[in-house]
Amino acid sequence: MKNDKPYSLLARIDSRRYLVLGLLFVLALGIRLYFTWDEYQAYGTQNWTDATIYLDHGQRFAAGDFYPAYGTYGYMIVGPVMPLLVAGSLRLFGDLIWPRLLLNCLLSAALALVLLRLKKWLISGAVGYSMALWSVFNFGLIRMNFQIIKEPLVIFLTPLILWCLP
Fold this sequence. Notes:
Blueprint: H1 4-43, H2 51-63, H3 81-93, H4 98-122, H5 125-137, H6 139-143, H7 151-164
């Protein structure tokens, strides 16, 4: 009987932490999906800069051309990771754009969880929660989901790599 109380207290604290993590993730994902949908419905791909290069190379990768030339360049002008992801989304889902935009939103929303865990590990829990909340509402991070670009992937992987270091 005595041991049930501390265990239940720890279980409640753990469940609250996971509830907060889940709410942060769902809130961040909802915000990003809303703004991405709104931006894409309003403007489509007309404001895209280097994202059109990723789309073009991704289409060529899906067709089997793994060394595409772009415009007046006789060679590929971007790294192969983003075109491979675009080609994979075309092969798996039959669509070039929405699977990549959804992946950007998922990675950008998951950044809140990684920052929370990283800051709690390095400094304190309060700093972790404030960084996670900052990443949920940071419009610079939200705006990066509107196009097929590499920044959400890089911004997600950098703290994840730091968190995984021994």
